[in-house]
Each structure stands twice: as C-alpha cells, then as structure tokens.
C-alpha cells in the first residue's frame, strides 16, 4: 500500500493547462507571432514552451521579457474568469485522505497557485505545497519530486506521483517514484510509456493505493 501521494497540479487538480497555452498565444499574437500548438505540446515535454518559439523567430530577450509579463497577466485573467474545476476532484481527495497523506508538487508560480485556490477546497487535503519558487531545476528534472519526498520523510517506494504530462512523468521516473498518469485532453498526445498506471479520473487512485480484495 502506498502511504503518500504527490500530485501535480495543473491538468490534474485544476483544468488550467489550456489557459496557460492560450495566455502565451495571446502574448505572441500581440507582437505578430502565431504560437504553434503542436510544437508547443512537443516542446512542453522538455520543459520548453512559448518562448522557445519566440526565440526561434528571432525575437530579442528584452521583448520576450516584456511579453512574458503580459502572458502572466493574461493567464491570471483567465484564472479569474474561466471555469477550471475538474469534476470529482474534491470528492476523490476527500476519500483518499482516509488512507494516505497528500501534497502538491507543481511548476505553478506561488502567485498563480494562491489565486487559483482563493475559493477552492483542494488545499485542505494537502500536507504541503511545493511551487516553482521552491526549487531550482524544474520538471522533467527530478528535483521537485525529491523535495516532496524529503518533506514527507518518505521513500520512493511508499509514494505515488499523479501526473498528466510527459514532462512530469519523466520527473517522477527520474526520482524513482511510481507514476499514475491521469487523462487530460490537452496532453493526451504525450508519450506515457513509462507510466506505472493510466487512469481516467482521480477516483481510480483508491484501487491503486490499497488492497481492494
């Protein structure tokens, strides 16, 4: 039986990944560039994204820095106005909390994370949250999940990671932790061959972490 679950955040607990992409798309459109979604999804698995395409198009770093701030503003606008809940998440977490301790390990910035959770009921089930400012090397590097293990005082063997992207899966695998990949339409084209489990919803996690016989 697993004793700990480390959840990715965006695309797993809240439906935000499309809106992060959309914010970047808007920021590039402001300077006359089109963000290629297929390329974005491919490069996302390497920890790259919007600005790799901007640099490839010859955009200078000063402009990128300015448009990054614009992107961040657009993203927060989406977080305030769009429906980003994933049905059944709170109920699944409430059930899982009877059996395991849980935490969040995310690439989200603290300001975005706090905005998302101002009026939501997800954080109450978590022992702690690791956000982007809490580590140096982002996913797919293992550092974020190794920090999660350390904060729990847990071994990799007694822990399960829940992810929705190949970048996050690769981070978990590099940290030596089993990973369940939950379906997300936005990242469904990613390579999940190394996943220990594939699930459609978080409700399926209970059967993975306990002996259901």
UniProtKB/TrEMBL annotation:
Signal peptide (residue range): none
Gene Ontology molecular function, alphabetical: phosphoglycolate phosphatase activity
Coiled coil stretches, renumbered: none
Superkingdom of this protein's organism: Bacteria
This protein's record includes keyword Hydrolase: yes
Keywords: Hydrolase
InterPro entries on file: HAD-like_hydrolase_sf, HAD-like_sf, HAD-SF_hydro_IA, HAD_2, HAD_sf, PGP-like_dom2
Gene Ontology biological process: DNA repair
PANTHER family xref list: PHOSPHOGLYCOLATE PHOSPHATASE
Family matches, as NCBIfam families: HAD-SF-IA-v3
Protein name per Swiss-Prot or TrEMBL: HAD-IA family hydrolase
Species this protein is from: Nonomuraea phyllanthi
């Amino acid at each position: 039986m697993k004793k700990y679950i480390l959840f990715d955040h965006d695309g797993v607990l809240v439906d935000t990944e499309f809106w992060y992409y959309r914010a970047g798309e808007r920021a590039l459109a402001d300077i006359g560039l089109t963000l290629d979604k297929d390329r974005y999804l491919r490069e996302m698995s390497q920890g790259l994204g919007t600005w790799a395409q901007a640099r490839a198009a010859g955009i200078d770093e000063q402009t990128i820095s300015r448009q990054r701030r614009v992107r961040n503003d657009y993203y927060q606008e989406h977080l305030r106005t769009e429906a980003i809940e994933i049905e059944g998440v709170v109920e699944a977490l409430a059930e899982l909390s009877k059996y395991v301790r849980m935490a969040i390990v995310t690439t989200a910035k603290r300001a975005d994370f706090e905005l998302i959770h101002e009026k939501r009921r997800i954080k109450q089930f978590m022992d702690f949250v690791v956000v982007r400012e809490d580590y140096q090397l982002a996913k797919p590097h293992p550092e974020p999940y190794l920090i999660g293990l350390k904060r729990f005082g847990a071994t990799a063997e007694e822990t399960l990671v829940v992810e929705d992207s190949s970048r996050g899966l690769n981070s978990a695998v590099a940290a030596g932790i089993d990973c369940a990949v939950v379906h997300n339409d936005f990242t469904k084209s990613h390579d999940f061959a190394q996943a220990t489990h594939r699930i459609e919803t978080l409700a399926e996690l209970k059967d993975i972490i306990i002996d259901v016989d």
